[in-house]
Automatic annotation (TrEMBL):
Protein name: ABC transporter ATP-binding protein
Annotated organism of origin: Streptomyces iakyrus
Start and end residues of each ABC transporter domain: 54-289
Subcellular location: Cell membrane
Length: 296
């Protein structure tokens, strides 16, 4: 029995040692691919304050050689601040716009510009710190609400947290919770509604004071109260931050400053809700099936 335990211990030790050396190897990897042009040093990014502008110039992209193109000469321009929504059928390439802005992938042709500068020329850490990204069904982790909010902004003060909670209309939720901000929100946020989870993810992103907020709207249905809250929160944030939304429900974007309609990897139309209803057949069809009543 003791010999068998010793053999087991040695084998566990060897597995553990191999895992530790793999972790150490990963930790040594550089997380910062070099900027394409030499001479770009940290701190030398573009403007450091205010809402960021975004421009796609004839962008072509496919995820891997041999796969079909997801973007074919996509061009559009988003000036600083305001809300811009991307709509279109599933697979049109809307979320891929965000992946290219964040530089998760590199465009095969054309240029992706943030603040008039090719994202490939930004230092990755500066680019990412300018951007708040709220993914579809963003995770809420086991732990308290406060922990969920501040893990990406550990130095956030209580005043900043209160301000962001008010802006994301979560202050009433906090009042309702038995221990306020220090209430555990359950495994993966199971005690929260889908709309509350998405607003917590927005609040978390806002605590990092992004100049550009990318919001990939959750596909899950929201009840009317949460849908209205999300729409108001986005409109409020867009007053001083550039907000891009991949919209799965037209009802949340009818008030956008500009709507970009994508279809099979191309931009087919750009305009306001009213302009597009009048001018673009695909958008008019989406509006007819999704919107029961015209909204603002
Ligand atoms: P949805 O409204 O369904 O979210 P979308 O317009 O946002 O769709 P994208 O997510 O940009 O579309 O995807 C465009 C196409 O690229 C889809 O056909 C998708 O399957 C494919 N795709 C997305 N991510 C990858 C990836 N990492 N590797 C290969 N193909 C991908």
């Amino acid at each position: 029995e003791p010999v068998s335990q010793l053999v087991d211990a040695v084998s566990h030790y060897q597995e553990g040692a191999a895992a530790v050396s793999r972790i150490a190897a990963v930790e040594r990897l550089s997380t910062e691919p070099p900027a394409r042009q030499s001479g770009v040093l940290p701190g030398q990014g573009a403007a450091v304050a205010g809402p960021a502008s975004v421009r796609f110039e004839d962008v072509s992209f496919r995820y891997r050689p041999g796969l079909p193109y997801i973007h074919r000469q996509v061009s559009f321009e988003v000036p600083g601040a305001g809300m811009t929504a991307f709509v279109g059928p599933s697979g049109a390439g809307k979320s891929t716009v965000f992946a290219l802005i964040e530089r998760f992938y590199e465009a095969g042709g054309g240029r992706v510009m943030v603040d008039g500068k090719d994202v490939q020329e930004w230092s990755l850490s500066e680019l990412r710190s300018a951007i708040g990204y709220v993914e579809q069904d963003a995770p809420v982790l086991a732990g308290t609400l406060r922990e969920n909010l501040v893990f990406a902004a550990p130095r956030a003060t209580d005043d900043e947290i209160r301000d962001v909670l008010a802006r994301t209309k979560l202050d009433t939720l906090v009042e309702r919770l038995p221990h306020g901000l220090d209430t555990p929100v359950g495994h993966r946020g199971s005690q929260l509604s889908g709309g509350e989870r998405q607003r917590i993810a927005i609040a978390r992103a806002l605590l990092r004071r992004p100049r550009l907020l990318l919001l990939d709207e959750a596909t899950s249905q929201l009840d009317a109260v949460n849908e209205l809250a999300l729409r108001d929160v986005v409109a409020e944030v867009a007053r001083e931050t550039t907000v891009l939304v991949v919209a799965h429900r037209l009802s949340t974007v009818t008030g956008a400053d500009r709507i970009i309609v994508m279809d099979t990897g191309r931009v087919r139309a750009v305009g306001t809700h009213e302009e597009l209803v009048a001018q673009d057949r695909l958008y008019a069809q989406l509006a007819a099936t999704q919107l029961l009543t015209p909204t603002r």
